[in-house]
Amino acid sequence: MISVENISKSFGEVTAVDNVSLQAPDGKITALLGANGAGKTTSMRMIYALIKPEGGQVLVDGINTHEDPVAARARMGVLPDARGLYKRLTARENIVYFGRLQGMKEAKIKERCEELVDRLGMGAFIDRKTEGFSQGQRVKVAIARALIHDPQNILLDEPTNGLDVMSTRAIRRFLKEQRSLGKCILFSSHVMQEVSAVCDEITIIDGGRIVASGSEDQLRDKTGSENLEDAFVSLVGGEKVV
Amino acid sequence: MNLRALKTVFFKEVLENARDKRTVMSSIVMGALFGPILMVIIMNTTIKMQQDKAEQKLEVPVINQAGAAHLMDFLSAQDVTLQELKGSPEEAIKNKDHDVVLAIADDFAEDFSQGRPAKVMLYHDGSAKGAAKVSVNRLRSLLNAYDRSIGTQRLQLRGISPNLTNVVMIEQHDQATKESRGAMLLTVLPYFLIMGLFMGSMYLAIDTTAGEKERKSLEPLFLNPVKRDTVLAGKLAATVAFGLLTLVLTLVAFKLTLPWYPFEKLGMRFNMGMQVMMIMLLVLAPLALLAGAIQTIIAAFAQSYREAQTYVGLVLIVPMIPSMLLMFMPIKEQLWMMAVPILGQNLVINELMRGDIVGWDAIGLVIAGTLIMGLALAWIAVKLYNREKMLFTD
């Protein structure tokens, strides 16, 4: 369960995120939907306690992320925008490294690693060095290392960016599985079909501000639109002339 | 600090970089072997060239040989090959066709027979190096010998003791020991040792910071429930370990190449026993911390791997400064100098090589001075990543 209350962030003169609040309950997939540059990544970085918000607070299972970032991070599994792997290590070594940093026991790491190999379909490449991995293989390894400690809260920044259909479907299936296990999943995206396909709750961000939130149906009713894309365009103030 | 996390980071960095052939090649081969091998080659070629010149028959082009027939006979008797010179003596020296040219003045014969100083001209290049000097010195001493022998004969003919002209007798007492002669040629040794150490840690300092940032793995790494200080401390420990490894290998390489140095030919002795090596290692080891910390700090500010390589590469000039200084100026050692990192190491190693006993106070001061500075820099390096600006390249 993640609850974000009135966080803001500016870089110099530019206000990237302005007074953002949102709720991501357990057992649901919540989307942070917005165009490129709308403030998704900055918001996510504040939520997973990489950077400090100017005012407001983030609670992860009731833990304030800036009072106790170490404890909060132990309850989160994050796939950030940056998802570089260590290319001179094998996929398994990459995952085990993060398991150890999570403070897990060796036996537990091994067991959990096998489970993730299975669930994400990584059997073919788990013991290969990650140099030359395809985009899909890389994302799977990045997700596995982020979730090695089986966290209650899963945060993903544009998880299917640049992936082909098969990989995208594998990841969607995996997220739905996690939802059925009662996990809290928050993910940011700019892809309507994606959000439409997997998310229960949608929060729309534009220009660093939250403009609407609710289920897909609620958003469509509110704007009288036929699909999420039209609802989104109408909510962010129409098609801007570029 | 979370010790288990620190160890995890340390071993991962060591493993990852040990798999990188480029790191291993640059730290071990370049850092450890480059210095010793270069020194063996340079010293041997220099000595060989000088020896060849000294043993070779001296060949001297002479202008106006007819003007001083007696002198020519003397030189020939001393095994000098006299040659005719084509072109001007200035040209011959400038073009390095000859090391030295002798010219006999036109009125040499007349002055000689009248008992006036008769003039000869020596053409040579005073700024020439090594072997050329040998030829000039040999000819000059032959001319001096001729001068003395004729002078003595003239005095004896007039019934005067030649000893009257020897007013002062100089007896030389050279205090250079066999070790100190070796040390003069080996003033570059501390530089190569320190340089090796800097080169050994360089790639890790860059790879674990700027490299990790560029490959976009730093952000996910910092999302683990471990303090950034701890992660950085683990990285720095790996960097320092590679520096230390290179240092040990450089010392071993020097020890192993020692038989190839032409010490005997130079009448020198060079002391590098186990005890000397241990003291060298002891005073140099804290420098690995300092080197790793400086390199990590600099690499942290770079936006890319390449940029970091440029900046960190420039740091290699720093250990050159005290070594160069000591090479060209004889500095009287003061105890406080021992506390200055790099300078202190240079002084101690130079003393060790001269065969002097180095006091434990000096050794302690070198270690303490470098360690304090190294720890301060390490603290800065570790704290640097608490600044949000350091986390992203964009």
Automatic annotation (TrEMBL), chain A:
InterPro entries: AAA+_ATPase (IPR003593), ABC_transporter-like_ATP-bd (IPR003439), ABC_transporter-like_CS (IPR017871), ABC_transporter_ATP-binding (IPR050763), P-loop_NTPase (IPR027417). One of its GO terms (molecular function) is ATP hydrolysis activity. Residues 2-232 form the ABC transporter domain. Keywords: ATP-binding, Nodulation, Nucleotide-binding, Transport. Coiled coil: none annotated. Belongs to the ABC transporter superfamily. This is Sodium ABC transporter ATP-binding protein. The gene is natA.
Automatic annotation (TrEMBL), chain B:
It is found in: Membrane. It comes from the Bacteria. GO terms for molecular function: ABC-type transporter activity. One of its GO terms (cellular component) is membrane. InterPro entries: ABC2_TM. The keyword Repeat does not apply. Coiled coil: none annotated. The chain crosses the membrane at residues 24-43, 183-206, 236-258, 279-302, 308-328, 359-382. This is Na+ ABC transporter permease. It comes from Marinicella pacifica.
